[in-house]
Amino acid sequence: MSYKVQKTEAEWRAELTPEQYHVMREKGTERAFTGALYHNEDKGVYSCAACGAELFSSEQKYESGSGWPSFWAPHNSDNVAEQSDRSFFMVRTEVHCANCGAHLGHLFNDGPQPTGMRYCINSASLAFEKNGQ
Hints:
Elements: H1 9-15, H2 18-26, E1 44-48, E2 54-57, E3 61-62, E4 70-71, E5 80-85, E6 92-97, E7 103-108, E8 118-121, E9 126-130
Antiparallel strand pairs: 1-2, 1-9, 3-4, 4-8, 5-6, 6-7, 7-8
């Protein structure tokens, strides 16, 4: 797949923290309830930590109890892409940044209305900017 932002793995490794690289480039997962943005209740926009593309808004964030920041819809659906993930002997929907390909998390159909969806996203994949900042 071709993305707007193209970098070598060496460039990504130099720009991202070790945890960010593991999550975003190696499709890792941070431990539940440990992410810096899990309990964030400030109003603002969540962007891709790798490329800055706007992904989610605090307006769509909710407490799912899952241990990761959860959203019922993207803020900018053009920047959030999905693909089938058949790892770990199960079928899930992976969510990644459509701008740079960074792994964000997974999508589940057990969220609140109006969409019924839960975008379960790693804090390590996100940068947050408060409204008015």
